[in-house]
Amino acid sequence: MKGLAEKVAIVTGASSGIGHATAKLFAREGAKIVVTARRQVELDALVDEIEAAGGQAIAVAGDIKDENLAKTVVETAVGRFGGLDVAFNNAGSTGEMGPVPDMSLAGWRNTLDTNLTSAFLGAKYQVPAMIARGGGSLIFTGTFVGHTVGMPGMAAYAASKAGLIGLIQVLAVEFGPKGLRANAILPGGTDTPSSITNAPGATRELLAFVEGLHALKRMAKPEEIARSVLHLASDASSFITGAAILVDGGVSINRT
Length: 256
Fold this sequence. Notes:
Rossmann fold; alpha/beta
């Protein structure tokens, strides 16, 4: 039996990278999917791909910082598919980078709104819908940065993602008695379009450096991260909640 059969799931940041890979994996595992991101064309292509493979999906484009989007995505899941069981709050951004004294207040606020406030807004509407179904699984994309490793120039990113860990812990204890679980994955370097190794002007030397930071001496494929999300979404992780799980290829412990 498929691991998410009869489940309804939301995936944010689904137009590329980890969110894109996770949406396809969820669909293959039997879930009905609502995907969201800013880019309508990419979302429509993803829905077409899922449906061509026999799955069910619908796209809702918008800005993850917008509370109306958070509400609409949940209403779409309930209205189209009958409820909500899983939410993968994955959308995020590295935001403005640089030393703290040089960082603008606007850049700081935008990064926190994108990575942390959007997660709050997602949970605000996802939690009641899950409780109405008898529980569910909330999953957030954090990072090892600001958790096990400090990296220069990434203060806003680190602070916003570290805040997710506090959020999941509170969600876990507030709603655990109602059957709801909340966890975060903390990926290492992942080969996505937004990775610094794929930025314009990125060199082979940069790729080798980033790969060398990891104990496995390589970056992750988005599909590898997606499998860790599937575990947290499924009943295989039924006793895991309030956890920040490193899926980082050993970057947090590597010193070689």
